[in-house]
Design brief:
By secondary structure, the protein is of the alpha/beta class. The protein has two domains: 23-93, Arc Repressor Mutant, subunit A (Orthogonal Bundle), CATH 1.10.10; 95-211, NAD(P)-binding Rossmann-like Domain (Rossmann fold), CATH 3.40.50.720. The protein is built from eight helices and eleven strands. The protein has helices at residues 23-41, 49-56, 60-69, 82-93, 108-117, 152-159, 170-183, 209-228, and strands spanning 4-5, 46-47, 80-81, 99-104, 124-131, 140-141, 144-148, 163-166, 187-190, 196-197, 203-206. A seven-stranded mixed β-sheet has the order 6-7-5-4-8-9-11, with helices on both faces. Strands 1-10 form a two-stranded parallel ribbon. Strand 6 and strand 7 form a beta hairpin. Helix 2 (49-56) packs across helix 3.
Length: 231
């Protein structure tokens, strides 16, 4: 698959540093927090590393190493305070307020993304959506107001948006990424079915659902072949 490159940008003078932990550690911490929220809601006050290991699929040693990054320690007998650990991970991952985020592309996928995040409280909250369809502009869709794509620069500035989600057709993704970056967006989450290269100073995550589905299907097929003994 061809990789589309967006124009390079300089890192802004007021840019904040990237998180002081490896990407995989950040991913695991986010997962631990979601698991801990469920644990707290079930009425449990303490949790051990082997509990999180069992729920997350990682080892207890890996869990302890990750929790050392946030500077939180537990009691050998009782383990970690579940609520305290949620707060400590939140302090490490989040800012004082959720990052303002924008979605570009309010088609079927975009609507599903808006519906998924409606009422949830991750480290970013969707405050604006953009589309080229006049029938969608000016409407509130899944709790988020939709603006014309021509308003990106103004709305990014007005809302202090630093996170952008891209859910547009493949041929429009590079232009959207470049436009968001030039408007001041620092992090991009790309759902478009094409790989992108981020502008300089912008963090990019690719959400390639086709590749993930093909990988899962391949493993499932090979597992079935192995059990059946067929070639």
């Amino acid at each position: 698959m061809k990789v589309i490159t967006v124009d390079a940008l300089e890192w802004p003078d007021d840019a904040e540093p990237m998180p002081s932990a490896p990407e995989k550690t950040l991913e695991r911490l986010s997962l631990y927090r979601r698991l801990l929220v469920t644990i707290v809601s079930d009425g449990r006050r303490h949790v051990h590393s082997h509990d999180l290991a069992s729920l997350s699929g990682f080892t207890a040693a890996q869990v302890r190493r990750d929790l050392m990054v946030v500077g939180y320690t537990g009691n050998p007998a009782r383990g970690y305070s579940a609520e305290g650990l949620v707060e400590a991970i939140g302090t490490f991952l989040d800012g004082p307020e959720p990052e303002a985020a924008a979605l570009v592309g309010v088609g079927n996928l975009g609507r599903a993304i808006l519906a998924y995040f409606l009422g949830r409280r991750p480290g970013a909250r969707l405050v604006a959506a953009f589309d080229i369809d006049p029938a969608k502009v000016g409407r509130v869709i899944q709790g988020c107001r939709c603006y014309s794509i021509e308003e990106v620069e103004r709305r990014v500035h007005d809302h202090g948006i630093r996170v952008g989600l891209i859910a547009v057709p493949a041929n429009a993704a590079a232009g959207v990424a470049d436009r968001l970056a030039r408007a001041g967006v620092r992090g991009l989450l790309n759902f478009a079915p094409v790989p992108l290269r981020a502008p300089a100073g912008v963090y990019l995550e690719q959400m390639d659902m086709t590749t993930w589905l093909e990988k899962v299907a391949c493993f499932a097929r090979n597992e079935a072949i192995g059990k059946d003994g067929n070639q």
